[in-house]
Amino acid sequence: xxxxxxxGRTLSFxxxxxxxxxxxxxxxxxxxxxxxxxxxxxxxxxxxxxxxxAGEGAQKIDHRPHLIMPGFVDAHVHYSQxxxxxxxxxxxxxWLNTYTFPEETKFRDAQYGRRVARQFLDEMVRHGTxxxxxxxxxxxxxxxxxxxxxxxxxMLNIAGKVMMDRNAPxxxxxxxxxxxxxxKALIAEWHDKGRQHYAITxxxxxxxxxxxxxxxxxxAGEFPGLHIQTHLSENHAEIxxxxxxxxxxxxxxxxxxxxxxxxxxxxxxxxxHLSEREADALSDSGSVAVFCPTSNLFLGSGLFDYQRYRTxxxxxRIATATDVGGGTNYSMLRTMDEAYKVIALNGEKLNPFxxxxxxxxxxxxxxxxxxxIGTLDAGTDADIVVLDSRATPIxxxxxxxxxxxxxxxxxxxxxxxxxxxxEVYVAGRPAKGDMA
Length: 436
Ligand SMILES: [Zn+2]
Description:
Low-confidence stretches: none
Oligomer: single chain
Bound molecules: zinc ion
């Protein structure tokens, strides 16, 4: 039996932090311990108490003075767009046609997919992210490549091959039947294998015919426990085009509603320009709006109204995500820094505890995975990030004047990136130290 005992400043959230002085929302230990056995956290708390429960042979790793937190969760990212990152000068639909679809055609080659999957998951770990909800390309082998690599690393990830049968080049199209068959085969092969989760993934309404949407509906009916991920209401041209393609629909959201695709396991990327009716529909169904700030700013799509969605009479469940290649950075620290600015433009300020709640427990809850990840609670999987608040010269200097945990977290969020990530544990195993 392998046991690992981590020592450091532990921080884990209990609930949404209402304000910067809402200290009841989290558990923080200046000298904390996390005891890990067989990939699970078995005890957490004051180091002295946790150390007493460790066996003789436990491996002790001292991370003081660094922060030990649950690993970050990224609720929307395209692994097949590693080579699309930093593509200049387009809005959503032009960007898809000019950069994204041509790149995704390469994933027909399984070898290419395997290479990118490896690099992608290396990047996730480097940035402290231990769980993603990922879009693969349309090719079945791209999802196989992703799951093979994720499973070999024992990471808890959600992914799906995109279903798309129109309005894109031939090399990235399936058909209603092949999309259905491939999805079903991938579910049989990969869903619940180790820590892998399959998500039914119609790319978005524009690239799926009504026949394919019917197939997505059938899959959702056959596999009701699975995640569903797609895009909704990202930019105005996309919304208009969707209305032309589905002239009977009341609005964009109605398309997904009509095909039975809303629900508590449904992750809807962007949701920027929702009407009140659409926001109500998301709330009533328990669907999740996924806020991708770096992507929304980079593509000029719009400003997600985080605080309004959260506090309206019918609140919407929210996750945050990088959305690379539309997004510009794999770091959830960089992502929440941009989220802070978008929220500021909407007239509110997100407190640093709420930010760190969001990228850990908040996103785990949005993915309905809070019993496994997102906290340091005993009984959950040992997916952990260790953060160094003095990782760069400016951070070291700035930390000389910082006296509160809130200010330290805000510094990490505002200027931190992969350099602040000292170590990452995936199911209890150090994963960053191993990397080249
Ligand atoms: Zn996306």
